[in-house]
Amino acid sequence: MGDPYTFTTMVLRGFERGLERLVEGTFARAFRSGVRPVELGRRLTRSMDDDRSVDVRGRTITPNHFVIALADADYQRFGEVRGALRTELTEAAREHATERSYSFMGPADVVLAVDAGLYEGQFQVDASFRQGAGGVGAGTLVLADSTRVQLTDRPLVIGRLADCDIVIEDSNASRRHAEIRQDGTDYLLTDLGSTNGTRLNGSVVRSQLLTHGDQISIGAWSFVFEAN
Fold it and tell me: How many Cβ atoms from other residues are within 10 Å of residue 174's Cβ?
């Protein structure tokens, strides 16, 4: 699998670059002193490694909900970039899980909070396991424009009709083309009797459990399934 240190370093470098792109000059001003983002990312990924476990199916599961407690001075300093910081930390958790082949019990989420007992430069990370809605595991459908659609315990329908959850304007797609629904802690892709079929990783399927990284193709549209 490679050197764990190298994987973590790559994730953290990508995390910092992503945050810098989002906030540019504000990034430099906000993190000139006090807690730096890479410290938060390093502690978060370390907590994922330290608290990992193995479920009854033999999968390595890791915390997916993180509360990062900061001193008030650091929390206020992050004011202009707090949303971007949460987004990038969450993405860093997803990438770390992918690199280490970890699974989540539910969607990854990061919360920033104030702890009056902490001094500037101090912080704490509380990592915990949280199931998705209805007890379903984590699952996301990533669209071509990078939009992320979180899967829940409610079936998600893809097709041309306006009342579909994901509407695709493609003459090769049927009105209600395919659906993705919960199957235990997994997700099942099912073709709904479409005219031109649903492809999974290039092959036509009628019904198939999804695994991380699967590519779903309907007409000219493609979606990637992420299990974490």
Answer: 21
Place of tokens 């001075």: 73
Helix (H, G, I), strand (E, B) or coil at 25: helix
Strand pairing category for 109-114 and 65-70 = parallel
Question: What's the token pair of residue 180?
Answer: 């993705």
- Cβ within 8 Å of residue 105, ≥6 positions away: 61, 64, 129, 130, 131, 132, 137, 138
- Binned at pLDDT 50, 70 and 90, residue 147 comes out as confident
pLDDT tens per residue across span 171-214: 999 999 999 998 877 889 999 999 999 999 999 999 999 988 89
Q: How far apart are CA 200 and CA 215, in angstroms?
A: 6
DSSP string, 84-152: HHHHHHHHHHHHHHHHHT-B-SS--EEEEEE-TTPPTT-EEEEEE----GGG----EEE-TTS-EEE--
In this structure, are residues 198 and 210 in contact, taking their beta carbons and an 8 Å threshold? no
Here the tokens at position 150 are: 């979180």
Note the pLDDT of residue 24: 45
> Could you write out the DSSP letters of every residue in 35-87?
--HHHHHHHHHHHHHHT-EE-TTS-EE---EEEEEE-HHHHHHTGGGHHHHHH
